[in-house]
Design goal:
The complex is a heterodimer of chains A (about 260) and B (about 625). Chain A is an alpha+beta fold and about 260 residues long. Helices cover about 35% and strands about 10% of the residues of chain A. Chain A has two domains: about 110 residues, Beta-grasp domain (Ubiquitin-like (UB roll)), CATH 3.10.20.30; about 130 residues, Alpha-helical ferredoxin (Fumarate Reductase Iron-sulfur Protein, Chain B, domain 2, Orthogonal Bundle), CATH 1.10.1060.10. Chain A contains nine helices and seven strands, in the order ββαβββββαααααααα. In chain A, helix 6 packs across helix 8. Chain A is elongated, with a radius of gyration of 20 Å. The mean pLDDT of chain A is about 95. Chain B folds into three domains: about 290 residues, FAD/NAD(P)-binding domain (3-Layer(bba) Sandwich), CATH 3.50.50.60; about 140 residues, Flavocytochrome C3, Chain A, domain 1 (Alpha-Beta Complex); about 130 residues, Methane Monooxygenase Hydroxylase, Chain G, domain 1 (Up-down Bundle). Helix content of chain B is about 35%, strand content about 15%. In chain B, the strands form five sheets. Chain B has a five-stranded parallel beta sheet with strand order 5-2-1-9-17. A five-stranded antiparallel beta sheet of chain B has the order 11-15-14-12-13. A four-stranded antiparallel beta sheet of chain B has the order 16-10-18-19. In chain B, a hairpin with a 2-residue loop joins strand 6 and strand 7. The longest helix of chain B is centred in the C-terminal third of the chain and has 25 residues. Classes of the chains: A alpha+beta (about 260), B alpha+beta (about 625). At the A-B interface, helix 1, helix 2 and helix 3 of A face helix 3, helix 5, helix 6, helix 11 and helix 12 of B.
Chain lengths: ~260, ~625
């Protein structure tokens, strides 16, 4: 099939970007969306132009690199997949496809479709872990964990850190990301000791990075390729409130 | 080239314990005075950086990704082995050790493998304490599954995303150290060379992938956790960014490269669907627990799977290997699939796969149980192929997946360049000629959490500290060479893309140094690769500049290195004139088509020394002694 692409091109962070139009001819429905971009890039390169810069790595929906807006939707029209798992059978001959980077103040565009998502790492740095020194762990079966808790923790832990939730949110909030990580740990007995410090630290870092507040639109849950539920956000809010009331949030983590 | 493995004395189960006592220590107050560079943030690199940070070393950790959570360890699906014997099915450290040496077809170092089996217990404890959500039973205790090449259930798993969960645990530990100030993380910086001063590794040269700046970073030791080189075949299950540059550049600076021809072809990947495919997708080997592999018994049978009655199906693994059946080791399962497809029994539109069928398991256990175990894998398969594996059997075919070869290391995981360590897939140490499933995560984490953070002290305690900086003539020389190479790549301005060369190399390697190899094909490859390399440097087109984010330039450097390294793979495959594990030489097979080793001549690791451009590399050997697992013909029947 033959498609027309309108792709955001922006040479550098401070340069002004705009859409450029490319023809994607001879596309097979079995190709992945990124295979299609590869093919277009091969042609662009042969014509002497710089190919479209986009991030990708594992190409199987787990590394979280390949965030982009496809026709205005983070990761494209199919639910519960990343851009790299999208296949061209989702499109029809003659379609026009608009491809843009994730848009958020906290995700500055670096080039074309590549954005800087390091703010998410700084949220984790602010407490998104369990403090356990290598070698100091007790036997793995010492503490049984009820399966429902383990399963809920797992559902939250499925987050791949792609940033689609931020891109989809009208406030550019990263609360789904932050809440998923906090919930992964707070559902487990190992994660209780630091639970409220963690909530306080991560939410504070989230706000300092310039992510917006959650106002319950739910667009994040719709965009999330791993189907992470907004319920985790209310759980984090409760933990944050408790941390605030007990003075933990104001004091911060101190590290 | 001196190859002293420095295996500690004493009985095998005491070697690591004794060695820990005998190693020299750096006292806690002095550790922060030592700077250690770790390259890579996968399970090995991330674990090493986090742990060395905890111990108090001043750690600089580098990744070419935007975040430490993206390394390809994240894509591992099936699980991680540990000899916990939580199932009470007769597992033990010794059995895991035995299985791994045998599974590696007797081409690994016994002492290292035994240590790996010992440390497997600590890894699970550590991961659980970090909050890694392994699968659990209803009683709240950890669940296990069985995996290829083993007859006990010792594999811990986290749905189909064990790698992601382990890596997140590791990444969180690393971010904790970043917060504590013991680890400085350098993201979007790609290592392009090693700095060797007075015979010791003292730093690396990196390119900042955003600004294009080439920089020297100096340290007291360098640890490479930079993964494997399956992308030499272009189409593999590895992430697109995986490359050989770090280890090959280290080899060019004097580090011996061991067993580069030991490349694993994974049996359960989704078959290629067309010419423009950019990568292959793995379906976890754990699927072989409940899926049955078959092909139509009659060649050329094009009926849909459901229309073929059981009596006309060939469950060939169950037929040939009654005791291991669908759980035969990877090399064997891969070769048998190739045989079936080559003989015309292939299924799917392109007749390039075999079936992996869950019909019987769904009947026996119910759809829910299967969904619980493999739900996300089934979903992934459906997204890619458009077929529902609950209703029609999956189609699978082997694909390059993991490389057992890597930088030669001694018992302390140090390469032949003092101060340069290699961990995880980047080294050669534990898997011999074939890696068993669920062992890569185990090895990466054993190396990263528990081995190198200790053995590096043994080196640092007796080595010069500090005294070098980026102005050192050796550092400036390397920066100059790296810069010149970038400029050279941009200056060619030919008419072919980088990818077109990578694909051509991949096809050449797959055909002549892939799942089956022979003397004539390898000799031909050794003629063709230098020609291709020459054409690359004459005809490649790398658009853009060196002074900003330029993905074509990044790829060009990596492909240029693959074009050098591929030759060493072929030299190794040619001179290892036997079959062993994943290295299958058509000249050396048993009557029933299994790999025939030649222990008299080849019970050694082959270690390659770079001797200059245009010179064939030199082959050295480390003899391997099998005192505990007697050399025998592997049998999975």
């Amino acid at each position: 099939m033959n498609l027309t692409l309108h792709v955001w091109r922006q040479p550098s962070p401070r340069a002004k970007g705009d859409f450029r139009t490319y023809e994607a001819a001879g596309i097979s429905p079995t190709m992945s969306f990124l295979d299609m971009l590869d093919l277009v890039n091969e042609r662009i390169t042969q014509e002497g132009e710089e190919p479209i810069a986009f991030e990708h790595d594992c190409r199987e929906g787990i590394c979280g690199s390949c965030g982009m807006m496809i026709n205005g939707v983070a990761h494209g029209p199919q639910k519960l997949i990343t851009a790299c798992q999208l296949h061209m059978r989702s499109f029809s001959d003659g379609d026009e496809i608009w491809i843009e980077p994730f848009r958020a103040d906290s995700f500055p565009v670096m080039k074309d479709l590549v954005v800087d998502r390091a703010a998410l790492d700084r949220v984790i740095e602010a407490g998104g872990y369990i403090s356990v020194r290598t070698g100091s762990a007790p036997d793995a079966n010492a503490v049984p964990i009820p399966k429902p808790h383990a399963d809920r923790a797992f559902d939250a832990a499925a987050c791949i850190g792609c940033g689609a939730c931020v891109a989809a949110c009208p406030n550019a909030s990263a609360m789904l990301f932050t809440a998923a990580k906090a919930a992964h740990l707070s559902y487990l007995p190992q994660g209780q000791t630091e639970r409220y410090e963690r909530a306080a630290g991560m939410v504070t870092a989230h706000d300092e990075e310039g992510f917006g507040n959650c106002t319950n639109h739910g667009a994040c849950q719709e965009a999330c390729p791993k189907g992470i539920s907004v319920e985790y956000i209310s759980r984090l809010n409760r933990d944050f409130l408790r941390a605030s009331l007990s003075g933990i949030a104001a004091a911060g983590r101190g590290d | 080239m001196q190859l002293d493995a420095r295996i500690p004395s004493g009985p095998i189960e005491k070697k690591w314990e004794n060695h820990q006592f005998e190693m020299k220590l750096v006292n806690p107050a002095n550790k922060r005075k030592y700077t250690v560079i770790v390259v890579g943030t996968g399970l090995a690199g991330g674990a090493a950086a986090a742990t060395m940070g905890e111990l108090g070393y001043n750690v600089h950790c580098f990744t070419f990704h935007d975040s430490a959570r993206r390394a390809h360890s994240i894509a591992a699906q099936g699980g991680i082995n540990a000899a916990k014997n939580y199932q009470g099915d007769g597992d033990s450290i010794y059995r895991l050790f035995y299985d791994t040496v045998k599974g590696g077809d007797f081409r690994s170092r016994e002492a290292n493998v035994h240590r790996l089996a010992e440390l497997s217990l600590n890894i699970i404890d550590q991961a659980v304490a970090q909050g890694v959500p392994f699968a659990r039973e209803y009683g709240g205790l950890l669940a296990n599954r069985s995996f290829g090449g083993a007859q006990v259930s010792r594999t811990f798993y986290a749905r189909g995303q064990t790698g992601q969960q382990l890596l997140l645990g590791c990444y969180q530990a690393l971010e904790r150290q970043v917060s504590a100030g013991t680890v400085k993380l350098h993201t979007r910086k790609e290592m392009l060379d090693v700095i060797v001063i007075d015979g010791r590794a003292r730093g690396i040269v990196t390119r900042d992938l955003v600004s294009g700046r080439i920089e020297a970073h100096l340290a007291d030791a360098v640890v490479l956790g930079t993964g494997g080189y399956s992308n030499a075949f272009f189409l593999s299950t590895n992430a697109k960014g995986c490359n050989v540059t770090a280890t090959w550049r280290a080899a060019r600076r004097g580090a011996g490269f061991a067993n580069p021809c030991f490349t694993q072809i994974h049996p359960t990947c989704i078959p290629q669907s067309g010419e423009y495919q950019s990568k292959l997708t793995l379906m976890s080997e754990s699927l072989r627990n409940d899926g049955r592999i078959w092909v139509p018994a009659k060649a050329g049978d094009t009926r849909p799977a459901a229309a073929i009655p059981d009596s006309e199906r060939d469950y060939y693994l169950e037929r040939i290997y009654p005791s291991f059946g669908n759980l035969s080791p990877r090399d064997i399962a891969s070769r048998r699939a190739k045989e079936m497809v080559d003989a015309g029994h292939g299924v799917g539109e392109l007749r390039n796969g075999v079936y992996l069928d869950f019909r019987d398991a769904i009947q026996r256990l119910g759809r829910d149980a299967i969904s619980e175990r493999y739900g996300n894998l089934f979903q992934m398969y459906e997204k890619i192929t458009g077929e529902d594996p609950y209703a029609v059997p999956m189609r699978i075919y082997p694909a390059p997946h993991y490389t057992m070869g890597g930088l030669w290391v001694d018992y302390d995981l140090m390469t032949t360049v003092p101060g340069l360590f290699a961990i995880g897939e980047a080294n050669f140490s534990d898997h011999g000629a074939n890696r068993l499933g669920a062992s890569a995560l185990m090895q990466g984490l054993a190396d990263g959490y528990f081995i190198v953070p200790l053995t590096i002290g043994n080196y640092l305690a007796e080595s010069p500290r500090g005294g070098v900086d980026a102005e050192h003539p050796a550092a400036r020389d390397v920066v100059r060479e790296v810069t010149a190479r970038q400029e050279r790549l941009l200056a060619v301005q030919g008419n072919r893309t980088v990818d077109s060369f990578h694909m051509e190399l991949g096809r050449l390697m797959w055909d002549r140094c892939g799942m089956a190899r022979n003397e004539a094909g390898l000799k031909e490859a050794l003629e063709l690769i230098p020609e291709l390399r020459e054409r690359f440097w004459r005809e490649v087109r790398v658009p853009g500049s060196a002074a900003d984010l330029n993905q074509s330039l990044e790829k060009a450097g990596r492909v240029a290195d693959f074009l050098e390294f591929a030759e060493v793979m072929c030299w190794d495959a040619l001179t290892r004139d036997e079959s062993a594990g994943a290295h299958y030489r058509e000249e050396h097979t048993t009557e029933d088509g299994e790999a025939r080793r030649n222990d008299e001549l080849f019970a050694h690791a082959a270690v390659w020394e770079y001797r200059g451009d245009g010179e064939p590399p030199a082959r050295h050997r480390e003899e391997l002694n099998f005192e505990h697992v007697p050399l025998s013909q592997r049998s999975y029947k």
